[in-house]
Amino acid sequence: MTLAVYPGSFDPITNGHLSILRRALEIFPRIVVAIGRNSEKKSLFTVDERLEIIGEVTRNMNGVRAESFDGLLMDYVTGLGSNVVLRGMRAMSDFEYEFQMALMNRKINKDVQTVFLMTDYKWFYVSSTIIKEAASLGGNISGLVPQLVERRLAEKFAQLRAAR
Predict the structure, then answer these.
(1) Where does 46-96 show beta strands of DSSP type E?
(2) CA within 20 to 30 Å of 152's CA: 20, 51, 113, 140, which one?
């Protein structure tokens, strides 16, 4: 039973991410959504908040679990007994970065394969960054993220405004 590791920041998880997960479950019976702990990246949600949100929105997806990790992705993947990294791509702009990362990961561990799934057309323009920007300015993000994420974003931005 092949385990795939779907790494990312998922800050926050979007319907595009969930679409990739649903489609990947048709290929891989088990998937770990792996949040990399990157101290240099400024995140809106804490790792624990993201783990909680992902756990909730994927609770009906059999075979999916969320974890966080430190260090090299290749070490984490092999530590789980996996040899598959799952990545989603939206546009050609994603391709160069993803290609570079896949080649570097292959240099680190030639036994780990990177599998790319293209996003569904309706999520082509959706990214966590653009979702956060729209939500921070009061934009309508319904239908682009799960309702839980929409609610948590509204709460988070209300807290940030109150703290100013």
Answers:
(1) 64-69, 84-89
(2) 20
Residue 124 among known ligand-binding residues: yes
127 is in an annotated binding site: yes
1 is in an annotated binding site: no
Report whether 77 belongs to an annotated binding site: no
Taking the C-alpha atoms of residue 55 and residue 13, their distance in angstroms, rounded to an integer, is 11
Which residue of the set 23, 30, 90, 156 is catalytic? 90
- pTM reported for the whole predicted model: 0.93
Q: In terms of DSSP bridges, do strands 113-118 and 64-69 run parallel, antiparallel, or are they unpaired?
A: unpaired
Residue 17 annotated as catalytic: yes
Catalytic site residue from 43, 50, 82, 128: 128
Q: Give the integer Cα–Cα distance in Å for 95 and 75.
A: 23
Domain ranges of the chain: 3-125
CATH H superfamily, domain 3-125: HUPs (3.40.50.620)
